[in-house]
Amino acid sequence: MSNRDYANRKPVSKGRTKAKGGRRKSAQPAPKRFPLLLSLVTVSLVGGFGYFLWSINDSATDTTPEPVVVQPAKPQVQKKDPNALPPKPKEEWTYQQELENKQVEVDIPENTAPTRPYQMQCGSFRKQSQADQMKAMIAFQGLEAQVRKVEGSSGIWYKVVLGPYDRKRAAEKHRHILQRGGLNGCQIWFWEGS
């Protein structure tokens, strides 16, 4: 028994017939018709081009004269000396007399609470060399820091501090500069003195 693949077999087209020996012979192809849409587009383009040529020819042969507008002669103005200046205007200022008798009142707010300055601490180390390294990293960001030696209950600490700042906003600005440089963890506190 031969294995035939009926599922993938191509159907026989109607225009072909089997010839002797199992070969298919194609019938003559049907004559192609000129597409109707293509002919309509061609006719409309040719007609449009003809109308364009006719309108150009019509406007070129139109010999209607255009009306001529006659400008009335302008009276000649006598020229003055170009170097002559106009007369100096008279100054009329009224605010000078008003300000002579004016008194200005200024309200100065009383600042009852003394402001405490702020400081920013970026590190606290046991070794001074580590604190100096942090101070150098801060200097590379364009800011100036100090290293303070503090003796506490747990021993000697070296703190890296920036400030004093009059306003907390200035301290926050410097903290953002340090954060962009990769130094995170700086804390803003009230100034402790020294």
Automatic annotation (TrEMBL):
Which Pfam families does this chain map to?
Answer: SPOR
Report any one BP term from Gene Ontology.
Answer: cell division
Q: Where is the signal peptide?
A: none
Biased region (Low complexity) positions are 67-76
Sorted alphabetically, which InterPro entries does this protein's record hold? Answer: Cell_div_SPOR-domain, SPOR-like_dom, SPOR-like_sf
Q: Where is the composition biased (Basic and acidic residues)?
A: 78-88
**Which intervals of the chain are annotated as region Disordered?**
1-30, 63-88
Which residues are listed as membrane-spanning? 34-54
Per UniProt, residues of the SPOR domain are 112-192
Composition bias of kind Basic residues appears in 11-26
Query: Which of UniProt's keywords are assigned here?
Result: Cell cycle, Cell division, Membrane, Transmembrane, Transmembrane helix
List the PANTHER family: CELL DIVISION PROTEIN DEDD-RELATED (PTHR38687), CELL DIVISION PROTEIN FTSN (PTHR38687:SF2)
**Could you tell me what this protein is called?**
Cell division protein FtsN
Instruction: State the gene name recorded for this protein.
Output: ftsN
